[in-house]
What we know:
By secondary structure, the chain is of the alpha+beta class. It has 2 helices and 10 strands; from the N terminus they run ααββββββββββ.
Amino acid sequence: xxxxxxxxxxxGAVVLAMGGLGNDREIxxxxxxxxxxxxxxxxxSLMQSRDYALLFTTTGYRFYIYxxxxxxxxxxxxxxxxxxxxxxxxLTMALLLDGREVELKRDxxxxxxxxxxxxxxxxxxxxxxxFKLEVSREGRPGRFELVGxxxxxxxxxxxxxxxx
Length: 164
C-alpha cells in the first residue's frame, strides 16, 4: 500500500514537471513579459512623446523607435529593456491585424534591417495598432492570446488548455 502511494506521488510530480496538466508555464511567462513591456512602452510613449513599434517573427520580436530626423524606424540599440528578444525553443507566435493573419518571417535573418516595417505601433497620441498575438508551443494544444486595443488596453486570454 505504501509503495503504491509513493509511486502515485512520483507519477504526479513527473506529470506536473512535464507540464502535462494545466497551462504551459513558458507560454504564460512569455505572454506576461510582453504584456508588461507593452504597458510600459505605452506609458513611455505618452510621457516622452515618442513613437514605438514592434516587429514580430514567429520566434521573437524587436522594438523600434521612430526617428523623425531620418524619417524611419530605428532599433532601440542602447536600451537593454528594448533589445531584440527570442522566444524559448519550440514556442511560436502568430499575429492577427484587423482579423487577418500576418505572414511572419521565421527569424530576423530575412528581415530588412535598413528599412524595417514594424507591424504594431504605440504612438505618442496614446493609440496602439489593434492586434491579437497568439503564443503557442509547436505540436501541443493550447495557447495564450495577447490582445491590444486602439486605446492601449491589453488583455491576456488562455485558450485550449484542459479542454477550455
